[in-house]
């Protein structure tokens, strides 16, 4: 049986799809076209192979990206954004601009005392 979720507002729904530390960075890395797994690993510094695989599976399941397998030797897999993924990237652009405008203030936050 398929599990359904309800959300309190649009922001709640958006965060459910793109939440977490890595998905925004993966979306950004895919914005210019298809990318292979190794290229994604390099484009998202600090992510482990296991976490990248899990994030890509989640993003494929939610419809943000498409995984294309080329049956050749050696096998080749490319990831690309769907229209849904492109639309989320567009929506996140203003949030990224806000982050850039406020990066010094955000970096100055004593993060060890937050949460």
Rg computed from alpha carbons, rounded to a whole number of angstroms: 16 Å
Mean of residue pLDDT values: 92
Please tally the β strands and state the result.
3
Level of helix content?
40-55%
Shape: globular
Beta content: 5-15%
The stretches of 5 or more residues where confidence is low (pLDDT under 50) are none
What gap, in angstroms, lies between the N and C termini?
36 Å
Structural class: alpha+beta
Strand order, biggest sheet?
1-3-2
Annotation field: number of helices = 6
Provide structural commentary.
The chain has 115 residues and is of the alpha+beta class. It contains six helices and three strands; from the N terminus they run H-H-E-H-H-E-E-H-H. The protein has helices spanning 10-18, 23-29, 37-43, 49-61, 83-101, 103-107; strands at 35-36, 65-70, 76-81. It has a three-stranded antiparallel sheet with strand order 1-3-2. A hairpin with a 5-residue loop joins strand 2 and strand 3. The protein is globular and about 50 Å long. The protein starts with 9 loop residues before the first helix and ends in an 8-residue tail after the last helix.
Highlighted features:
alpha+beta; single chain; three-stranded antiparallel beta sheet; 6 helices; 115 residues
In short:
With 115 residues, this protein is α+β, with helices and mostly antiparallel strands.
How is the secondary structure organized here?
Elements: H1 10-18, H2 23-29, E1 35-36, H3 37-43, H4 49-61, E2 65-70, E3 76-81, H5 83-101, H6 103-107
Antiparallel strand pairs: 1-3, 2-3
